[in-house]
Design goal:
Strand content: under 5%
Distance between the termini: 45 Å
Helix content: over 70%
Oligomer: single chain
Structural class: mainly alpha
Largest sheet: none
Radius of gyration: 22 Å
């Protein structure tokens, strides 16, 4: 995914990061709203086996996507720290580049944990692939 867009107008270029940030924030808000809608849609309903399999598979894909997002955010934090154009308004604080390094480390840690979560779902998906509804019990259990 490209992180920059070439703009001919230098004034427009100075506004470019804010435009990208706004689009990213809007996309993340929309994604969160969709996840919340999916969770609410499940509500008290019972899934059948195919529905459970699909939901777990999609959850694994979402975890992978979130891990990749966290990795990309870590790279952005590293990049920001190298610009030398940041300041921290807290008194007696560490230099901003140290803070952004710590932010990047935290985000990479989040990415690693999300990868682990995705890996933990692999055996779950494998188990679900081996299950099938009993011929005399087509409906989900209690």
């Amino acid at each position: 995914m490209p992180t920059t867009v070439e703009l001919a107008d230098p004034a427009a270029q100075s506004e470019q990061p804010a435009m990208r940030s706004g689009a990213l924030a809007a996309a993340l808000r929309a994604g969160h709203a969709e996840l919340d809608r999916a969770r609410r849609a499940l509500g008290g309903d019972r899934l059948d086996l195919a529905g459970l399999r699909d939901a777990v598979g999609q959850t694994a894909k979402l975890t992978e996507a979130l891990a990749e997002l966290a990795r990309e955010l870590a790279a952005q934090a590293d990049r920001l720290g190298r610009t030398g154009h940041l300041r921290d308004d807290r008194p007696a604080t560490v230099p901003p580049e140290v803070t952004t390094e710590e932010v990047a480390v935290d985000l990479r840690t989040v990415a690693n944990h999300l990868c682990t979560a995705g890996l933990l779902l692999d055996p779950t998906l494998e188990d679900l692939r081996h299950l099938d509804a009993a011929p005399d019990d087509p409906a989900p259990g209690p």
